[in-house]
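Sequence, please.
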């Protein structure tokens, strides 16, 4: 039976009566201790929840689902409890995904209005949920008025036009290897840079006007109440030139932090750690090495060596803090809108989805959950070769009218893991498991904030961390195997002193600690203090 068990410290028993009154008085209050060490939830807006029956998810749909995401009560057992939302691009755009803005100052009418955004921001502020917008600043849509003016200036040969150098362009004979180009309309021999698609021209950040305009865009939304941004494709500011791109982000983030000191920003640098770390001094970046089907989390959850995962977490956390000792943190995730969904390889029926959730959520920093990941939604690019299959309509299981995005081909028959409604009714569901993990992160701030050291245990499927935080030590241990483990922790140097208590067990079974002897159910994790 899948089960989550909570254990209380003996030392806390005497304080229960005293604390109970305070807790009851504050039960409706949001968690004000989360600062930027938060669990974020990625919403692909057009696929999440439809409020007006047109089949397209929208901002009001998110508003309508806020009680599911965070009902404002940090002690609630009726809410997922996430503390941050990442909204995919919401600006005016010709595409379903909106990663090609035509007007940064206009909410796409299919998603709603600026008033809808303001209302959502107000609700989230009341519940201490931060909202970050997906801001794509390296390229725009060809339909953007800026690009139209750029094209017109080149057709007219008007080098004095302020839009003549608004986008990155060159002569046909001077193209740089490794970059993609397309001909400027009506200007044979002149090409503009477009590394993603010919419909997405790259802005020219050698132009001070461009830099100031994109800074103005960010400040506009900060003034509306947005808490920060997820920046798309940060290495494409100067593609294939990490030094110049990194220097840009030093400047850009410096300006934004001066404007809003508590801003939360995260960058997408889809690269190996060596390149990603070049940007961490400016802003935290998603950790792609820990994610995806062959990442450290999935490999460990599927039975790989757990110590490979724990040593990596220790190493990477240290590298991030060395680059940015003030704001640096890990940003772990398993999958996002550009990847096949995790439920295809971290499956529910064999418990791997539960183990993967433990490994994600019991890590330092600020983890991200992709919408539907908590109910094991499926979706792969497959032979159709379309990302729309990774961005399917959320499976609410009620009257929501949201539909799959344009171009999707994924069969509904493949969705075998249920809906939000069906999983809410099952106390052993993956959804309830994620709720419990988020609760645990709130109860133990050291999980997000502490310094992690891999425990030298030497077993393939049993391992973990010692976490140091505020001069105290906490231990997290994972059993990723399908067999119960019975082990004397006293044989390991970091655990030999004993004196710890079992305070949490989360996974597919229970745990027992007798002195230093730990009995741990399969695919279950524990916290010792």
């Amino acid at each position: 039976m899948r089960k989550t068990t909570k254990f209380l410290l003996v030392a806390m028993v005497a304080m229960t009566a005293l604390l109970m009154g305070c807790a009851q008085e504050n039960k409706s209050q949001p968690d004000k201790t989360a600062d930027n060490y938060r669990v974020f939830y990625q919403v692909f807006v057009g696929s999440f929840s439809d409020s007006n029956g047109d089949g397209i998810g929208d901002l009001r749909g998110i508003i309508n689902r806020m009680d599911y995401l965070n009902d404002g009560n940090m002690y609630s057992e009726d809410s997922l409890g996430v503390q941050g939302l990442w909204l995919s691009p919401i600006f005016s755009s010709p595409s379903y995904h909106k990663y090609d803005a035509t007007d940064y100052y206009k909410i796409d009418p299919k998603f709603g209005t600026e008033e809808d955004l303001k209302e959502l921001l107000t609700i989230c502020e009341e519940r201490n949920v931060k909202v970050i917008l997906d801001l794509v600043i390296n390229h725009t849509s060809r339909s953007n008025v800026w690009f139209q003016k750029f094209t017109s200036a080149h057709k007219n040969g008007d080098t004095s036009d302020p839009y003549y150098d608004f986008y990155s362009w060159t002569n046909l004979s001077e193209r740089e290897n490794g970059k993609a180009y397309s001909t400027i309309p009506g200007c044979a021999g002149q090409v503009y840079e477009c590394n993603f698609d010919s419909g997405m021209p790259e802005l020219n950040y050698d132009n001070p006007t461009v830099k100031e305009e994109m800074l103005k865009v960010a400040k506009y939304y900060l003034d509306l109440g947005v808490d920060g941004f997820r920046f798309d494709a940060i290495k494409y500011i100067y593609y294939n030139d990490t030094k110049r791109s990194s220097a840009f982000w030093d400047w850009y983030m410096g300006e934004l932090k001066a404007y809003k000191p508590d801003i939360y920003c995260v960058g997408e640098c889809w690269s190996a750690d060596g390149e990603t770390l070049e940007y961490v001094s400016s802003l935290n970046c998603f950790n792609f090495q820990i994610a995806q089907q062959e990442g450290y989390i999935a490999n460990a959850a599927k039975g790989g060596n757990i110590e490979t995962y724990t040593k990596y977490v220790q190493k990477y956390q240290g590298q991030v803090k060395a680059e940015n000792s003030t704001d640096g943190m890990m940003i772990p995730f398993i999958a996002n809108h550009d990847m096949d969904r995790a439920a295809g390889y971290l499956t529910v029926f064999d418990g791997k989805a539960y183990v993967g959730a433990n490994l994600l959520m019991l890590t330092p920093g600020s983890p991200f959950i992709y919408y539907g990941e908590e109910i094991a939604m499926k979706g792969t690019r497959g032979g159709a070769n379309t990302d729309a299959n990774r961005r399917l309509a959320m499976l609410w299981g009620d009257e929501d009218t949201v539909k799959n995005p344009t171009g999707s081909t994924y069969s509904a028959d493949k969705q075998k893991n249920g809906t939000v409604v069906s999983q809410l009714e099952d106390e052993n569901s993956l959804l309830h498991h994620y709720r419990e993990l988020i609760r645990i992160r709130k109860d133990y701030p050291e999980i997000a904030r502490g310094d992690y050291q891999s425990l030298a245990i030497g077993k393939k499927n049993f391992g973990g961390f010692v976490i140091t935080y505020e001069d105290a030590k906490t231990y997290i241990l994972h059993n990723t195997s399908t067999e119960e483990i019975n082990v004397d922790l006293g044989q390991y140097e970091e655990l030999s002193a004993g004196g710890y208590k079992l305070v949490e067990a989360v996974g597919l079974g229970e745990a027992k600690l007798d002195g230093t002897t730990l009995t741990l159910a399969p695919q279950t994790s524990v916290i010792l203090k």
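The longest helix spans residues 242-259.
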